[in-house]
Specification:
Uridine Diphospho-n-acetylenolpyruvylglucosamine Reductase, domain 2, 9 helices, globular, Uridine Diphospho-n-acetylenolpyruvylglucosamine Reductase, domain 3, single chain, Uridine Diphospho-n-acetylenolpyruvylglucosamine Reductase, domain 1, about 325 residues, alpha+beta, 4-stranded mixed sheet, 5-stranded antiparallel sheet
Length: about 325
């Protein structure tokens, strides 16, 4: 375990924001963590930080930050058709996906190249190209931060929804996930290429988990910037969901509004289209801007502060609401 006091958070968040942490622990042994937390002042705020790929720091953090680095992947059980794997929370998500692809385990191929760690995946209910974590989720283990009691939550207990879960609502900042169990396929894979770009490139081809993963990586690389070169957290906003009445009124004014039907009464509108239509295409303001290949991505071009990035995002939100009367919701966690 490494202990950092009054340290910079710049290398711990993909926005590369240079705020300070009063105390940060890099932990690779869960038993060490439980021992530390048992001695911690219960009044202190605790932030569990994974890969820092979905968080924007706008100020220094005065509490305790826990950066889990525990590693491990193991097969719990398997049969001819499926395999249940348990993955430690500190594992890099994409490294795990590549491991699954190498073993021809299906279900995670559409989630290739998503940044962050495995432990953060249930919190966000990560998703991409027609697949969400909940589609393969079995359970997760962890600690309640107040009592240090262990838990294991099954899928129904996690209350998964679009880019959210119980860990972002009633249990926000109250738990620490230590491992995740996922149920993957071994044969007769149920491939999902409904997403437009995947469908165009893979339709009428012989599919495999590797072929789909390679295509997803290709698409993501072409659309999303590498945080090593431009600080970012991927999609900053969720795609808003509106009811059928609102969708109809949008179509009356903007006939080309791109949308996906969620159910009989609701439609998911493209936030990227809303941002483009509102004049933010390639827009840059000093060290902050919108990425040229994906309007949902806000970029730190240099030494932007968290507040500069947040203020730019708020301008986008205000403009979208003024133009369309739609309230964009942040996918990124603001601290």
């Amino acid at each position: 375990m490494k202990i950092h006091r009054n340290c910079s958070l710049k290398k711990f968040n993909t926005f590369s924001v240079d705020e300070k942490a009063q105390l940060l622990l890099e932990v690779d042994n869960i038993s060490d963590l439980a021992n530390i937390l048992s001695k911690q002042n219960r009044k202190d705020e605790i932030l569990v930080l994974g890969g820092g790929s979905n968080i924007l720091f706008t100020k220094s953090y005065d509490g305790l930050i826990i950066n889990l680095k525990n590693k491990g992947k193991k097969i719990i059980q398997e049969d001819e058709n499926s395999v249940l794997v348990e993955v430690s929370a500190g594992e890099n998500w994409h490294d795990f996906v590549l491991w699954a692809i190498k073993n021809d385990f299906g279900g995670v191929e559409n989630l290739s190249l998503i940044p962050g760690k495995v432990g953060a995946a249930p919190i966000q209910n990560i998703g991409a190209y027609g697949v969400e974590l909940k589609d393969i989720f079995y359970s997760c283990k962890g600690l309640m931060l107040d009592s240090l009691s262990e838990f294991e939550f099954k899928k129904t207990e996690c209350k998964f929804d679009y880019r959210t879960s119980i860990f972002k609502s009633t249990l926000k900042n109250k738990t620490l996930i230590t491992s995740v169990k996922l149920l993957l396929t071994k044969s007769a894979h149920n491939f999902n290429i409904d997403y437009k770009d995947l469908n165009i490139n893979l339709l009428n081809t012989e599919l495999s988990v590797k072929k789909i993963s390679d295509e997803v990586i290709k698409i993501r690389t072409s659309k999303l910037p590498n945080p090593k070169f431009f600080g970012n957290c991927g999609s900053f906003f969720k795609n808003p969901i509106v009811n059928s009445s609102k969708y109809k009124s949008l179509l009356d004014k903007f006939p080309n509004t791109p949308a996906h039907k969620v159910d009989a009464d609701n439609y998911k509108i493209s936030a990227a289209w809303l941002i483009d239509q509102s004049g933010f295409k390639n827009k840059k303001d000093k060290n902050v801007g919108v990425y040229e290949n994906q309007p949902l991505v806000i970029i730190n071009y240099g030494s932007a502060t968290g507040n500069e990035l947040l203020n730019f995002a708020l301008k986008i939100k205000e403009t979208i609401y003024s133009n369309f009367e739609i309230e964009l919701e942040e996918e990124v966690i603001i601290m």
